[in-house]
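User: Here's a structure from my thesis project, written as structure tokens. My advisor, Dr. K., wants to see whether a designed sequence matches the one we expressed. Can you design one independently, without my sequence as a hint?
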């Protein structure tokens, strides 16, 4: 059974950790445009993102996210630190984390992979390209990939 089969019974949960309201709106629209049913949660800074994931893994707010989309440039706690903390914790290290950043700096890309990001995507500049990127994320991570429970 692939991961998509598991979602026949419930909508997958996607956590977006992003502080830019415009990017939040565009990503929300992109998921809506695809008509793929997801439970879409938003954390507006790194501390809120870590708190959300920790509460969910402790059973305080439902199940943990099936996928995390993470910006790097976040207030309070940086995306790099969020990634490092989640990948060090045995309860959260298997959650796929896709860095979705406007940074094209090789140092950011290398650091993200060194902290065990599952993928690093540069934020597309147009809504059409963003919808295409979200569609590829959805098809691979939420329909094709087999991930542990």
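Assistant: Designed independently from the structure alone:
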């Amino acid at each position: 059974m692939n991961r998509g089969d598991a979602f026949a019974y419930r909508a997958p949960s996607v956590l977006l950790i992003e502080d830019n309201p415009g990017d939040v709106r565009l990503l929300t629209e992109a998921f809506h445009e695809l008509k793929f049913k997801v439970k879409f949660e938003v954390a507006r800074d790194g501390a809120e993102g870590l708190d959300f994931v920790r509460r969910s893994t402790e059973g305080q707010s439902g199940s943990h996210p099936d996928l995390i989309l993470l910006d790097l440039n976040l207030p309070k706690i940086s995306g790099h630190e969020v990634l490092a903390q989640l990948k060090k914790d045995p309860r959260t290290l298997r959650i796929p984390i896709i860095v979705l950043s406007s940074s094209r700096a090789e140092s950011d890309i290398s650091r993200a992979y060194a902290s065990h990001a599952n993928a690093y995507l540069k934020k597309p500049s147009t809504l059409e390209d963003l919808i295409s990127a979200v569609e590829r994320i959805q098809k691979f991570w939420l329909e094709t990939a087999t991930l542990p429970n």
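When you compare it with your expressed construct, this may help: The chain has a mean pLDDT of 88.
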